[in-house]
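As a next step, the fold was encoded as tokens, giving this record:
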Amino acid sequence: MESAPAITTEHLDPEVSPTRFWAIAPVVAMAAFMEVLDLSIANVSLLHIAGSLSASKSQATWVLTSYTITNAIILPLSGWLASTLGRKRYFMGSIGAFSIASLLSGLAPTLGALIFFRAIQGLVGGGLQPNAQAILSDAAPPEKRGMAFALYGMAVVFAPAIGPTLGGWITDHMSWRWVFLINVPVGFLILPLIKSLVRDPPHFAKTRAMRLKNGLRLDYIGFSLIALGLGSLQVVLDRGQQNDWFSSTLILSMTVIAAFTLIGFVAWEWLRHDPIVDLHLFKNTSFAAANLLMFILGFVLLGTTVLLPLYVQSLMGYTAVEAGLMLSPGGLAILLLMPLVGQLVGRVDPRWLVGFGFLILGIAMLSMTHFDTETNFQTLMWIRILQGSGMAFLFIPINTVAFSSIPVTKSSNASAIINMSRNIGGSFGISVATTILIRQAQFHQSLLVRHINPFNPNLQSFLARSRSAFAQGIQTGGSATGEAMGYLYRNLLQQSSMLAYIDDFRIMGVISLAMIPLVFLLRQKKGPHPSPSHTALE
């Protein structure tokens, strides 16, 4: 059994206290919330952006793609940057630069300028998530470590869930430009608070001083490999379905580049003494398993965040506001339950909490397979609440296991890696969900069409009733027949789409339940209830 090295007093901040933690926590969590929110807040504004800047919707989607590409590139590097520049300095610089990039995005005169500024926004903001998590972890007293992860989880899990609803409201009542401009006052408000409250732990100053003393040597090869690899992978995931996947030369080329560069990156970094991404952390079984579980959490969270609004708006006629009202209680369930889970994680074996969370999540996703076009609002809302409840039991215990199984001096590297796992999982979730939706809708349509023939008595009865209904408002029988056939075709498309959504929900439910056995890879030493931060996991 390989235990995490003991945490010595030199690694702990002597000023850690509950009072200081509660002063730091909301400010730092707000910075993470602001950055994660921008992953989804602009999704519903694309048509407005395209119309305002004289572009097509396809061109406008690069506003989203440019952000996710640069964000994915910088996430795994943020641990190295924090330890080299100083975590507080890097965190404050990221907030300031993110706010300026948000301002420029909101004022962009052309689509090209907006795409460029969004790429900058993703690049400079990518370090906010992992460093916010590491700051909260180090600022919390041992008995409050679970609450630190709870606050961080409330920020990064609630943000993508509320993003489309908030973005739609801002766009409808103000302008799409305020989707980006709203970050500016928030960023410059929290900057002075972070300057006065946050400081680097002692071991950070020692690591930075030693690195600078030995001469700062940037790993250009490693940086180039991961930037090219993750950037290419993000292009594949974001544009794959739109370009018909591997029938597109662009997608095929990007896939080959991503595969070779990421394999090369792993080989290169594994042999380096001072890697920019410490891949040796994956030798720890618990840390590796925690990253896989976090990948799946991101996969289901972002996948369903895309699917559910589409389902109720395209098939059930909900407005954007009604869709938001249906989704929001799930986010509120996360907000309410995470503090409770933060308390439980120090008293209950985290593995039981993770297993329970995936069980609830799987049940919620499989419950969605019983949806149809007549499902009422209350049913949709309560199943969404059940889904949010399952996610609330996952984020904190998974992070507890991941962080408590490694030395505290590696917290920034670990935070960068586990946040990258969640973000890439989310990108895969969106890509897989939309691909299955489109492909399965075509598949179900081809199956349903087989039943449309003159010898089907149910079809003839349906057409007779439809013709009779339409004939009451139409002069000629021929027109009534045409209206009835059009009504039949619309029903065919609606039912095939509904079956495709059900396929998506079923796959995500099965994947969630399949994660439960992996909980046994999270090995924990037996003993009295240790604090979440200092529990030794193999």
Residues 63 and 112 are 9 Å apart (CA to CA). The chain has 21 helices and no strands. Confidence is low (pLDDT under 50) at residues 1-14, 525-538.
